[in-house]
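Q: Make up one entry.
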Amino acid sequence: MMAKSALADYLDGKALDYIEQSLTFLARAAKHCPEVSCLWKLLGDACSSVCVISPSKVNVNILGFLIGQNVDKCVLKKTDLLSLGGRCYGRGLKLMSSPNMWCDLGINYYHQAQHLTATGSNKNEISELLEKSVQCLKKAVRLENKNRLYWNALGVVASCKGVGNYALAQHCFIKSIQAEQINVVAWTNLGVLYLTSGNIEQAHEAFKVAQSLEPSYLTCWIGQALIAETVGSYETMDLFRHTTELSMHTEGAKGYAYWVCSTLQDKTNRNTELYRYNILQMNAIVAAQVALTKYTERIQNDACAFTMLGYLNEYLQLKKQAADAYQRAVLLLKNSEDKDKYNIAMRNYGRSLCAVDHCDASQAYLSTLLTEFDDIVGIAQAYFKKGLFQESQKAYERALSLADCEQDKACILTALAIMEYKQNQVDAAKTLLFKCPEELRT
């Protein structure tokens, strides 16, 4: 229970400590009384609870007895720990067959398949795990066909990408609702299924029912936000903001951060009522930054999320944190086939290193093609901060030839003037400043 509470608060490190402790005590109990079915179920629950945690964080110490080794302790990664969870459920089922444990085993197989999909593992192994998951959940439903949880779980697995049996999924969610009318989870999942299938109106109606049953249920609000985004509603950002106020959810956090960043990038909306409400009044930048920080703590392979986090940190003048976020984006895109995204990531990283006066800023810019105006200005600034005035001057002069508006030209001329002044060339600095358009000199 303590691990579940920590996971709900996105305190994954703390949750792992609790999981490790529970596995130690449960393993001792199972070694002493291996014929007790519920101990194996609890061991399976503890192993399976790491399913939402980033693989890079999962290094859990367990007793060697659990994996048949004659050693005191072993360290398991996420893949092995989820697999161990499945074996524990299997051991429990051999002792006593119950629909609840069949459902747990089916969900465990599903989580194993999702993890292997995220890591790009063998597709045949993934398909096999998903087939096992479906069969286990069907077994649970056959044993207790009035249980809403079993029908709902089968619907989730049937609708996932590797299975894609939408007809079965719809049937399962409806059966779950029939088993219990006040069933906000099944109504929400039915809405997600309709949304995935492109049935916007039916999805909206399903989410609306879920909202009426439990107005504070987070996931149905995320569904409505995704519908608003799909149809281009002006309420999209407000709906995503509401999801972050209800509770933390990765989909809601990333969605809200995306709309905050998009709004900030549009420089023409600063005087609009919508901007004042959505960004200033709602304290959107801080709220999005906090939500996205939690998101990236858990999901550590999303370059887009790290880029947005860096952008928000820059706005908040958190310069070191911005550089760290941009660096993570660069590392994730390093081997990407999309070189444009990598160059943009390097540009952002270089800019953030300049802001903290880091000596590697110029190296970051040199990793780009140096054909974009922003890249050339960036490396000029990096050279200037390192005291390489000659290299900086050449870069600024190149940027000046590419500048397509008077304001950019004035900024570059001012930068060149500052450089001359730094070298005690006062007359040269004045000459450069007088070259700026008169209306921009103030």
